[in-house]
Every structure is written in C-alpha cells, then in structure tokens.
C-alpha cells in the first residue's frame, strides 16, 4: 500500500487542477464542493489504510520512502553533486501529520461547502484549499529538505491567497492605530513576515547542504548522529531553521501576521491558521530533532521563545474583543506550548499537543464561523451574548472545544498540555521557571476561553433583535462541528501517559535525539499525578473565574481595566509590536528608498525631462542640454567613483 | 636624456594640452581644430614607437576624414550663440573632478612606483612589427576573425545611422 | 591559412545569424516596405540558429586560431540568445504596429546585436570580447532610440550611448593593461600566466612557453611570420625573464587591467555602482527593445563575464573574487531597495534587473563550479521571466506612455485573467518562490557562495530577495486586489501571446524540472 503513497499527494492536486481550470465555468457548487472535499477525503482514506497497515508491521519496517522522480540533479563533475528527488517518506511522524492534515482538512472542506455558499469565488476558494492541502502534504511527507521547502513556500503562498480572498473587504487591524485596511494587505503582511522566516529556512538548508553534502533526511540525520554535541555549525543550522519555524508558526517576534490573517474566511483560519500550516514549524523542529538535540543552545532558545510566546499571547487574548482575534492569539499561545515542548526535548508531547490542538482549535474556529455566519458577519463579542438558545448545537460543540482548550480534566487538551508542563518541569532542559510561565499561561488560557464562551453564548443579548435573527447553520456545517467535538473530547485518550501508545509510536523517530540527550525515563509516577492535579486545578480555577466575572459581575472586568490602565493598554495594543516594526523596519526602508536614493537621483530629472519644443533639432538640443546639465554627468561621475573604488581595492589588496 | 625621450615629453605635453583645450573652448570650431592638433601629437607618439602604419592611419582617417566631417556637421547645425551652452561650476563637476584626479593619481602611483619594464626583445623587433606588411599579414591570419567582425560592426552602425537619420519615416 | 572549414561548422549558429542579418538587409532593399517578410525571415533565422546551437552542444573545439571557443558553454548561451531574440521579435510585431513603427530595421538590429552576443559568449580572446560588446552595443543604442519621434526614446538612446562609450573606454584600457602585463589577449595564454602574475612571482619560462595555444602553433603559418610576430609578446615576456620587482609591477598592472575590464562588463550588466543608466534607458526604450536589453544583453555580458572569470583568470584570485562579491552585494542592496519606491513598472523592472545582476555576480564571485553552473542556469531563468514580464508590459503600454505605472494595473485580473495570471507567475518567479525557475537560480548561486566561504554574501542575497518580494508582490496585489480600469487597447497580437506562453512554460518547466 505504501507504494501508493504519492497518490496521497496527487488527489488534492487533481482536485486543485479540476477546480482551478474548469471551476469558473461550472456554476454547480455541489459538484465543485464534492470534488474539492472528495479529493481530500480520498487522501484521508488512503492515509488511514497506510496507517492501519503500518500498525500491522514491525517497528523497523514502518519507515519507508517512495521516490517519484529525480527532481533536481546537476553540478555533475563537481566535488559533491547536488541532487534532490520528489520522494515521499512515510514514517510514524509523517503519517500522523498526514492523517491530521487530511482528516481535519476534509472536515473543514465539508464545512466550507455550507459556509461559502453563494460566494462568487466559490470555485476559486476550493481550488486554493486543495492546493493548500497538496502543498501541506508535500511539506510533511517530503523525504528531503528541498521538497519540504517547496511545500513550505507553497502553504505560505496559499495562505497569502486565502487571507486576501475577500480582497475588497475592509479589515480592522485593531489596537491604537486602528483603522481600516484591505484584507489584501493583511495577506501581504503574512507573506512578508513569512518570507523572513523562509530566509531562516533557506539559510539553514544551505548550511545543511554545505555541512552534510546532501539534503535527504536519511543521510543528513545519520551523518549528524556521529557529530558531537554543541558543534557550532549545528547551532547555526538549528537557529536558522528555528527562525524559519518562528515565521511559519507565528512565534515571537514574528507572530504579528497571524492575528491579521484572521481577515480570511473562517474555514481558512481553521484549516491553515490553526490546525495545519502554523504547526509546520513545530513539525520541522520535530523532524530535525536530532539536529536540535546536538545544539543545546538552540534548544534553550526554542524553549524560552516558546514559553514567552505562550505567556504573552495568552495575556493579549485576555482583552481582545474580536472572536477570531481571541482564537488567533490563543493559537499563537498554544503553538508556544508546542515549541516549549520541543525545547525541553519532549518531542512526542509536542506532537501530541499539535494533534489535540488541531482538533479543538479547528472546532473553535469553525464554531466561531457558525456564530459569525449567524450574526451576519459580526465578530465583536461585546455585541453578542445569549446565543445559547439560538445556536444550540454550535454552543455545545463550542463549549466542548473551549473546555479542551482550557485543559479541563480528562479532555484532550488536558493531557497534552499537562504532559508538556510536566516535561518543562522535570525534563533534561526544563526548569521550574519554564513550568511557572507555562502554568500561568494555562490559567490565562482557561480564563480567556471561558470569557469568550460566556460573552458569546450566555448572559444578556447585546444585539439588535429587529435586524438580526440568528439561526443554526446547515448540516454541512454542524456535522463537522460534532465530529470535531467528539475528537476534542476523546482525542486525548490516545496520549494518556503510561497508558497509551502514542509516545511509543513516535519513539523510533525521536530515539536518535533522545540517545544524544541521554534522556532517561523519569521515575516518579506519583509526582506526575500530582502535577496532573495541579494542572486540572489551574484550569478549573480559570474557568470558574471567567464564569464568575462575566456572568455575574461584568462590571468587575471594567474596573480592573481602568485600574490597570497602562497594562490594559499594553495588552490591547498587543505590546505595540506592530508599531515597533513600523518604526524600526518598514518606514526606514520605504522612506530611505523613497527619498535618499530614488528622489535624489531620478525624480527631478524625469519630471523636468519632457518639456521639449516642437522642432526636431531643438528637441535633440533640449535632450542634449538635459544630459549636459542633468543626469548623464552624474551617472558618469558615479562610474568614475566606482572605478576609483575598484582601483583602490586592487592597489591596496 | 635621449632625443626620443625629449620628443616623447614634447608630444605628450602637446597631446594633453590640446585635449584640455578641446573640452574647454566654447566655440565648437575652435575645439575641433584643437582636436586635430591632438591627433597629430598622437600620431607623432606612434611614430616614435615605430608604429608607422598606425601613425599614418591616424592622420589620414582621423585628422583627415573624420575631422572634416565633424567640422561640416558643426557648421551645418549652426549652433549659434555658444553662450547658451555655458554652465557654471556645479557640485557635480567638483565631485567629478576630484574623483577623476583621484583615479589619475592612483594610476600614476602604480605606474611610477616601480621601475619600468625594458621590452628588450620587443624593442628589437618593433620596427618590423609596425610595418604595413606585418600588420596586413596579421590581420589576415591570426586576426582574421576580428577583422571580419569589424565589418559586421560597421554594417550595424550603418543600419543604425540610417534608422536614426532617414528623412522620411515609412 | 588561419582557418579551416571546421571553424565555420563549429560556429554554425553565428554564421546562420550573420547570413540571416545580411539576407534581411538585402530583402529590405529589394522590396522596401514589407516588414512582414523580414519578421518571418528573422524569426526563422533565430530558430534555425538556435537549433544548430542545440546540435552543437556536444562538440568542444577551438576555432579561428584560438579566437573562439565552441562547445557546450558557448552553445548554451547561443540558445539563450536565439530564444530571447526570437521572443523579442514575436513581442515586437504587434507593439511596433501599434506605434506605427513596424520597420525591418528593428529586426536587422536585433539580429546584429545577437551576433555580437554570440561572439561574446564564445570568445576566447579579449579582442573578440571587445568587438562583440561593440557590435551588440551599437545595435542596442539604436534600438533604444528606435522611436525617434519620442523624446523618451531619444533621451534613452543618447544616455546609453554616451555612458556606454565612456565605459567602453575603460574596458579597452583594461584590455590594454592586461595585454601589456600578460603579453597576450588570448584566454588560454593568460590563464596559464594568471596564477604567477597574481602572486607577483616572476613568470617562469616554462609556463609562458607552454602557454602558447596549440591551435596557433598548428595553424601552419610560415616560419617567418611566427618568428616575426605571432606570439611575439608572449615570447618576449618569457625571453626577458622579468626580475622580481618588475614582475610585481606586471602583476599589479594585470590586476588593474582586470579591474577595468570588470568595470566595463559591470556597466554592461548594470551592476552597482555602474548601474545608473539602466532605469532611464530601460524606461525610454521601446518595450520589446528594453526586454531584449534586459535579458539577452545582460546574458551576453554574463557570458563574457563568466568566460573571463573562469577561462581567463581561473579560480585563484581572492582579490578579484572579493571585489566581485562587493559589487554583487552593492547591486543586490541598491537594486532591491530602490525598486521598492518605483511606481513605473519599467523602472521597477530595471532596478530589479540590477538586483538580479547582483545575484548572478555572486555566483561568479564564488568562483567555483557551482557558481558557474548557477550563473548559467540563472541567466536562462532570468531571461524567461523578465522577458515575459516585459512582453506583458508591452501589451498594456499605450501611445502616450501612460499606463506604465503599477497602479495602472489595478483590476487587470478581472479584465484579462490569463494575462494577469501570467504576470503573477513571472513576478512570483522573480521573487524567487519555489518551484519556479527564479527560486532555483537564486538557490544555486547562493549555494555556490556558501561553498566558497562567502556566507555573508548569501545572507545579503537572501535578505535582499526578501525585500524584493515586497515590490514584486505589490504588482500582484494591485492586479488582483484593487479595483481598476486596466485594459488592453485593441487586439492583443497573436505573436505576443505565443511569446508569453513560451516564457511562462519555460519558467515553470525550468523550475519543476531543472
């Protein structure tokens, strides 16, 4: 069955081609939707079959790689030849990712059929979604860095296209510099920030090739195992790769694009900006675990950045009013947990959290989509309330998702988050401080998720009844919600410490790294149990506080907001990161380009150039004069300057 | 000081001086005449290097044919009052001048900083090399291709001239 | 005598172009005013020449007494020139018709420029490089000023000519210095002496003697001629057995000469700080001519550059490599940063071409095999995407030169989805997004730079290409995400569509299966 693995990738591509090429002619939304979702569904079925088969074989036989064709092969005759293939590696990690991508992806596709009904860009939407799944599968299934990079760029491109999908809509970036901007610009911001991350990935990749002479995982990782811990070049490689991961996975300081990305349609937020693409960075770090294991400095950086992101994003989430923004910051925060897990070498725990997060965050986004749909594009939770009775199914599933996110005991988020916190405390690279940051963030998480639930579904109705008649979404929308809700509730059971098999399932992938770290199984089942209790208490306390404040005494929140005005302002403005970037990077570059370089040399010339008179000779003369008094001389001067530089360089060599 | 070096310095001074006059004269006709003088000085330099053929060509082609063309064009265009073309000293000129002088100094430094090369072997054969027969033989053997390419270059130039100068656009 | 029949066979692409050029001139004089015939004949000539070049990829030979080097390298470039040449011709037809300037001279000049380019890429002698550059440049000067009733076009031609002549002066001076110090203009000879010259060692006799190109010796010249002059200066350099001090001087002069040659070529590829002419010239010239200049001429200059760097100098010089690296970095930074603030698409593409010159130069600066291969790949990729972009610009340009502003492209996607998609493709490729051709070009040259221990250069390159994403994407954003009235006036020429399709195909093809 594994030989059919390339089909996994092929189905969404075919879906994309169908929808992209014929879509604009076909007016039948049903057909488009079926093709779009069906192609992903087929991939999911295939992935499941492969997964079941893998369960049946021995551990050593589970990793296989299928080559489709040699993609790049050049530099023959040079010392090291450079080649890369389109080849897919199926192993425990990649098949798990593929299952998540296709499974959640399929549900979101189905949901989109209902959500996007009647949109003139229906076909375009499905074409992009399929293209995204194609790129994402390339990313997770690739057996070399180059193909992974292709997928990496591809998902970025799709994200850009999908964020800007409703390019003519206004979009509020929030904060003090609030104002309307076009969603197209939000897409562009996402793209540019991602490019900074790509820079890191590309540099890491170049260094990997120079160091190991190959880009195939197998040869890179097996060569890496014989290197010693702390080799400087590995530190550089991993740091560069981590820059790439921070860009894609929206970690500090490159997290700014993700909240803006919420300008896209909600299914896109669910699929790309919660469940799959943003976790690519986590996946990449996990994939390169052996490299990171050899670079303790990088591990520390990853852990710190992860913890800080988890904390800061959670605090920002406390005060936001846009339902999707809250979820966006929550996503950033949860991704921070995953990196924290990577940084403390709890790779399996990180991937486990990735999986549960995919379930409940997709659920929450889709639920918020249903709310927004029902409220006719209203996203401000201050203008909602009491929706419980209008949207019963959405409400129940949303609460399930929020409980999972908050870490309510025995739901999926509880186990995965708890395992990360436990490792942050006890792990080889962990420390009580990291645990403290993580645990505080967990309390905030519980608080903001139930602030969201309470303000949206409970309490008084703060919207205008005469214009709004909220109603439950169609079946294509709520069925995926229900499925995801079930997964969010029970999904954690596969990863219960000491009971389940997930950890051991992934072991072969992470063993080389663990050997390097000389990680031992930690004894102390009792202590672990204690930590579980603590985690559960934190979650419950947070939930209780939120219910108390927003259900019974809403005025308390405002009192606190005015008492800690500065703090509130800081959070409301998201720590002023955007403003900082504007001041430090964006404006100087644009201005510098504008005034110093271009206007100085060119504008005066061009603007004044075209005042010639009628007669031909006079025209020539005017051009001549222009050249004599104008630019050509300064150009020549520049050339002489250049020559002077060249000669000086040579003389002083 | 041999007679050759005296000749060299005189001719060089003449060439540099006349070149300065070419660019500093306001009247184009006067400038063109200085250019002719410059060509003659260069021809003299070539002669002193035993390059008779080039010296002769320099005079016949440049000083003879091309300069006459120049003068014709200047007179036909009838630029009129040359003061229109006058400009003051601009910052750009100053910068340009400084940069140019810097380049000159640098080259000077390199060439004068070390003793000159005695091209003994070349010197002996120089008389031979400069002859018309020799140049002809070279042109049609070793340098046949460059020679032929030159003809393409000229063809392209002629086509270009026609494009730019044809009276009627069709 | 100096050449054999095989010389002509080896240079079949070149001679095809020459023959075509002459035939078109004759046709033009015979049946004046039938530019359609010239169009077809020129196109056929380019295609034939390109096919011959494909056929000649395998043979490696020297011809015309060591003047030309034929083989995969020169033929690869010949293919690029023929491709860009034929595409330019395709693009130009409807464009020239629209502006009422559909004349045969355009094709003649393109053909002559292409001859010069082929010479540059196959040169094995500095003299040929020089003549090739001149042949190409003279044709391009005129092409830039082809719309002689337009002020813009005139200004463009005049600036290009004046500055070009200025730069050529330095190039020639550089060649003279190299000749004076190495005693020859032949690459093979210089290559043998370069290491010694650059280490300031006296030239060992053996090297000099061995340096005589075989073909020259075998050329079967009468003895007297050989004695008298052929490798005269070479023999002289050996004979005289320069003392150490003088060799040191020769070394410095050699490097100075190289530096000036580099200046001349850097001008032609529009690398900073010799780039200033490019935006004005690109802006003013007729768009197909601009496309030709930006792609084929740049490719040719790189063809010569790579020959000089690898065949003439070899990979031994740290000084020259570092110099090139600095020029490359400056070009990448300047080009990309200034491009951001451009509102005219042709000027934007001009600055982008400066930046791309920087990327390619970093491949040469790396001075390794990867660098050479990377530059060659990059040249081809760059030619396709840039020419494609200019083709689209040429469709949209109107009489009054309006509609060149990027904002004028607003709403293009709604009116002409296919054209907008093609332009988006070229922009993505220029920005270096995989799996398009532009990405692999950058990837190869940066890889070469990292391998040559010039990681800083690769970092500059990657960072500036990040900046570049901004302005390339702006075009896409404007096309797709803004309401506007962008529209094509009149019919879109079939030939232009073919050209765009070919470019788009190649951009994807080179990327997906390089």
Task: Tell me the distance between the termini of chain C.
Answer: 43 Å
Classify the secondary structure makeup of chain A into a structural class: mainly alpha
Overall average residue pLDDT of chain A: 76
Strand arrangement across the biggest beta sheet of chain A: 1-2
Number of strands of chain A: 4
**Element string of chain A (H = helix, E = strand):** HHEEHHHEEHHHHHHHHHHHHHHHHHHHHH
Kindly, what is the distance between the CA atoms of the first and last residues of chain A, rounded to a whole number of angstroms? 63 Å
Helical content band of chain A:
over 70%
What letter string, H or E per element, gives the SSE order of chain C? HHHEEHHHHHHHHHHHHHHHHHHHH
- Biggest sheet strand order of chain C reads 1-2
Strand content of chain C: under 5%
> What characterizes the major β-sheet of chain A?
2 strands, antiparallel
Count of separate structural domains of chain A: 4
Radius of gyration of chain C, CA atoms, in whole angstroms: 23 Å
Number of helices of chain C: 23
Please summarize what this structure is.
The complex is a heterotrimer of chains A (653), B (170) and C (514). With 653 residues, chain A is mainly α.
Fill in the keyword field for this structure.
A: about 650 residues; mainly alpha; two-stranded antiparallel ribbon; C: about 525 residues; 23 helices; 2 strands
């Amino acid at each position: 069955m594994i030989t059919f693995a390339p089909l996994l990738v092929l189905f969404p591509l075919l879906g994309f081609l169908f929808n992209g090429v014929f879509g604009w002619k076909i007016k039948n939304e049903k057909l488009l939707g079926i093709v779009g979702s069906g192609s992903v569904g087929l991939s999911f079925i295939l992935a499941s079959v492969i997964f079941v088969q893998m369960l049946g074989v021995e551990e050593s036989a589970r990793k296989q790689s299928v080559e489709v064709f040699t993609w790049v092969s050049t530099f023959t005759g040079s010392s090291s030849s450079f080649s890369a293939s389109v080849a897919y590696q199926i192993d425990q990690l990649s098949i798990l990712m593929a299952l998540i991508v296709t499974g959640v992806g399929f549900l979101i596709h189905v949901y989109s059929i209902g959500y996007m009904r009647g949109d003139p860009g229906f076909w375009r939407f499905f074409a992009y979604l399929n293209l995204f799944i194609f790129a994402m599968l390339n990313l997770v299934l690739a057996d070399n860095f180059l193909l992974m990079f292709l997928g990496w760029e591809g998902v970025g491109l799709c994200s850009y296209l999908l964020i800007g999908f409703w390019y003519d809509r206004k979009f509020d970036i929030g904060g003090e510099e609030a104002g309307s901007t076009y969603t197209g610009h939000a897409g562009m911001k996402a793209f540019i920030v991602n490019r900074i991350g790509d820079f890191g990935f590309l540099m890491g990749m170049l260094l990997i090739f120079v160091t190991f002479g190959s880009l195939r995982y197998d040869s890179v990782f097996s060569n890496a195992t014989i290197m010693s811990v702390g080799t400087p070049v590995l530190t550089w490689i991993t740091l560069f790769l981590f820059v790439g991961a921070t860009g894609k996975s929206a970690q500090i300081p490159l997290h700014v694009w993700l909240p803006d990305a919420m300008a896209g349609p909600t299914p896109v937020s669910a699929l790309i900006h919660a469940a799959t693409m943003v976790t690519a960075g986590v996946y990449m770090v996990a994939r390169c675990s052996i490299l990171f294991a050899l670079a303790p400095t990088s591990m520390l950086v990853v852990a710190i950045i992860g913890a800080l992101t988890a904390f800061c994003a959670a605090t920002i989430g406390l005060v936001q009013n846009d339902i999707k923004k809250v979820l966006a910051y929550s996503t950033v925060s949860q991704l921070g947990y995953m990196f924290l897990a990577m940084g403390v070498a709890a790779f399996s725990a990180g991937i486990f959290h990735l999986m549960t997060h995919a379930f409940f965050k997709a659920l929450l986004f889709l639920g918020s989509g249903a709310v927004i749909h029902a409220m006719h594009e209203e996203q401000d939770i201050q203008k909602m309330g009491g929706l419980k009775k209008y949207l019963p199914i959405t409400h129940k599933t949303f609460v399930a998702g929020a409980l999972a996110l908050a870490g309510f005991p025995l739901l999926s988020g509880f186990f995965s988050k708890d395992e990360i916190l436990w490792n942050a405390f006890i792990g080889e690279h962990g420390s009580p401080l990291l645990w403290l940051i993580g645990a505080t963030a967990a309390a905030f998480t519980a608080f903001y998720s139930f602030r969201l639930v309470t303000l949206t579904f409970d309490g008084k109705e703060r919207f205008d009844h005469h214009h709004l008649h909220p109603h439950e979404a169609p079946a294509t929308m709520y069925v995926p919600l229900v499925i995801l809700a079930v997964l969010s509730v029970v999904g954690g059971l596969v990863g219960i410490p000491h009971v389940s098999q997930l950890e051991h399932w992934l072991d072969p992938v992470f063993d080389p790294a663990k050997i390097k770290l000389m990680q031992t199984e930690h004894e102390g089942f009792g202590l672990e149990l204690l930590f579980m209790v603590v985690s559960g208490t934190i979650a419950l306390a947070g939930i209780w506080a939120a219910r108390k404040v927003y259900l019974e005494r809403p005025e308390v929140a405002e009192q606190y907001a005015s008492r800690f005005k500065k703090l509130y302002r800081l959070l409301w403005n998201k720590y002023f990161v955007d403003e900082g970037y504007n001041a430090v990077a964006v404006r100087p570059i644009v201005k510098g380009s504008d005034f110093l370089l271009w206007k100085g040399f060119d504008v005066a010339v061009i603007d004044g150039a075209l005042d010639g008179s009628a007669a031909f000779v006079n025209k020539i003369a005017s051009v001549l004069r222009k050249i004599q008094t104008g630019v050509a001389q300064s150009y020549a001067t520049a050339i002489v300057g250049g020559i002077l530089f060249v000669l000086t360089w040579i003389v002083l060599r | 000081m041999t007679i050759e070096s005296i000749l060299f310095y005189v001719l060089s001074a003449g060439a540099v001086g006349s070149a300065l006059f070419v660019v500093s004269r306001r009247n184009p006709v006067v400038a063109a005449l200085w250019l002719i003088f410059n060509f003659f000085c260069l021809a003299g330099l070539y002669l002193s290097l035993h390059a008779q053929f080039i010296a002769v060509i320099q005079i016949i082609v440049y000083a003879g044919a091309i300069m006459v063309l120049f003068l014709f064009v200047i007179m036909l265009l009838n630029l009129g009052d040359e003061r229109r073309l006058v400009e003051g000293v601009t910052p750009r000129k100053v910068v340009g001048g400084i940069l140019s002088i810097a380049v000159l100094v640098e080259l000077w430094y390199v060439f004068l900083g070390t003793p000159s090369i005695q091209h003994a072997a070349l010197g002996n054969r120089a008389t031979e090399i400069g002859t018309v027969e020799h140049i002809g033989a070279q042109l049609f053997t070793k340098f046949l291709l460059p020679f032929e390419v030159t003809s393409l270059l000229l063809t392209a130039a002629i086509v270009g001239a026609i494009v730019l100068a044809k009276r009627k656009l069709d | 005598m100096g050449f054999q029949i095989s010389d002509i066979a080896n240079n079949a692409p070149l001679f095809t172009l020459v023959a075509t050029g002459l035939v078109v001139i004759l046709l033009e004089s015979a049946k004046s005013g039938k530019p359609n015939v010239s169009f077809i004949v020129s196109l056929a000539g380019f295609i034939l020449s390109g096919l011959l070049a494909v056929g000649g990829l395998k043979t490696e030979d020297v011809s015309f007494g060591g003047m030309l080097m034929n083989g995969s390298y020169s033929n690869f470039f010949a293919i690029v020139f023929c491709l860009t040449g034929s595409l330019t011709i395709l693009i130009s037809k409807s464009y020239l018709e629209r502006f009422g300037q559909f004349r045969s001279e355009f094709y003649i000049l393109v053909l002559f420029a292409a001859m010069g380019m082929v010479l540059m890429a196959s040169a094995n002698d500095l003299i040929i490089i020089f003549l090739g550059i001149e042949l190409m440049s003279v044709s391009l000067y005129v092409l830039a000023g082809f719309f002689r009733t337009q002020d813009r076009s005139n200004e463009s031609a005049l600036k290009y000519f004046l500055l070009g002549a200025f730069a050529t002066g330095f190039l020639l001076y550089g060649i003279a210095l190299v000749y004076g110090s190495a005693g020859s203009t032949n690459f093979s000879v210089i290559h043998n002496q370069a290491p010694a010259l650059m280490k300031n060692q006296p030239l060992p006799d053996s090297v000099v003697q061995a340096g005589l190109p075989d073909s020259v010796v075998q050329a079967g010249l009468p003895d007297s001629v050989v004695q008298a002059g052929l490798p005269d200066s070479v023999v002289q350099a050996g004979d005289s057995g320069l003392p150490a001090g003088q060799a040191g001087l020769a070394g410095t002069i050699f490097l100075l000469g190289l530096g000036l040659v580099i200046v001349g070529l850097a001008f032609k590829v529009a690398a900073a700080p010799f780039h200033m002419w490019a935006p004005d010239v690109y802006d003013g010239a007729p768009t197909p001519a601009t496309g030709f200049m930006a792609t084929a001429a740049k490719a040719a200059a790189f063809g010569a550059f790579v020959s000089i760097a690898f065949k003439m100098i070899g990979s031994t010089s740290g000084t020259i490599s570092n110099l090139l690296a600095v020029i490359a970095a400056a070009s990448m930074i300047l080009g990309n940063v200034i491009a951001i603030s451009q509102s005219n698409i042709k000027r934007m593409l001009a600055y982008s071409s400066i930046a791309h010159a920087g990327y390619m130069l970093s491949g040469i600066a790396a001075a390794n095999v990867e660098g050479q291969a990377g530059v060659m790949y990059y040249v081809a990729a760059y030619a396709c995407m840039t020419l494609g972009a200019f083709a689209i610009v040429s469709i949209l340009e109107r009489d009054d030169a309006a509609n060149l502003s990027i904002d004028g492209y607003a709403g293009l996607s709604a009116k002409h989805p296919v054209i907008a998609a093609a332009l988006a493709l070229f922009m993505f490729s220029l920005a270096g997004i995989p799996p398009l051709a532009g990405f692999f070009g950058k990837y190869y040259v940066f890889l070469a730079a990292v391998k040559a221990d010039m990681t800083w250069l690769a970092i500059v390159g990657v960072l500036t290409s990040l900046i570049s994403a901004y302005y390339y994407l702006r075009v896409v954003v404007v096309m797709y995400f803004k309401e506007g009235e962008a529209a094509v006036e009149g019919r879109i020429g079939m030939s232009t569509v073919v050209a765009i399709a070919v470019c788009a195909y190649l951009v994807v093809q080179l990327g997906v299966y390089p």
